[in-house]
Amino acid sequence: MVRLTSRRLVALAALQVVLLAALLARHEHARAASGSGSASAARPVTPPATAHRFDVERAMATVRLQLAAGQRPAGSPQLRRVARRLRAKLPDGRFEDVRGHPGLRNVIGSLPGAQPAIVVGAHYDTEYHPKGFVGANDAAAAVGAVVEIARDLRHLKRPTGAPAIEFVLFDGEEEPFPTEDFYLDALRGSKAYADAHAAQTRAMVLLDYIGNRGVRLPREGTSNPKVWSMVRAAARRVGAASVFPLDVQTAITDDHTPFLQHNVPAVDLIDWSYPVKDTNQDTYDQLSPRAVDAVGETIVELLRTWR
Questions:
Q1: Alpha helices of the chain — where are they, by DSSP H?
Q2: pTM
Q3: CB–CB of 279/270 below 8 Å?
Q4: Residue range(s) defining the domain that contains residue 71
């Protein structure tokens, strides 16, 4: 039998502590990894926001409401059922038909103020493929955030002369069939809305992939720098600056693009590095309430202080 001295026992205990710390660190790294298989990569942790004006629990409940309906492509019965539920959650909620596309309709809510209005939007339809795609981050999380931003702003004081705000959930953002021209064949709801309302729109803020773990939202390549700087300043005030780094990512054709085509300053908040986009892995477990909260608090602050 090997006998251990007290000094050796202390040394052995210290070694066990080091090994345990290493195992815990490895476990936390694995939990932070996003995606699956060889595509996994460590995702940064989203810090908690320091403001508390946005109700993230209610936002996540709206996310779950959408996902419970399953796949929700434009024009489908399940999307129309979801649309009725979303309309009821928005202030002054109403439908607006998507011109040129029978059966499609945008869901719109409003808060009063000076004209022209600020538009805050997200798309509420899902891809038609792959079969079973539910779009937790594309874009149920964004829809949940927009709905909750609208509800929370109703109870906040805004400056005298603050702009009116239109909350628009776009139908038909996804292409209805394989296409090589996304702008031509997709973005049906946002193109119709921009065509009809651009003259009454001061600026547009689009939420898309905003709910994933470790979300990072550098400026999208075509987004208006001035509006994006306003978003980032609001993020700093609510403790979410790290979510909006100074980097510029690739240009993305999205629901903000029709507004840019009409010379309306617009920004697209989208984490294009989201590793499971356009796959059946885009499910609720990929989302982080802390990420949704950081974005929700930022946009509430932006709109609360916009003059």
A1: 6-32, 56-67, 77-89, 141-153, 182-185, 188-197, 225-237, 257-261, 289-305
A2: 0.86
A3: no
A4: 41-305
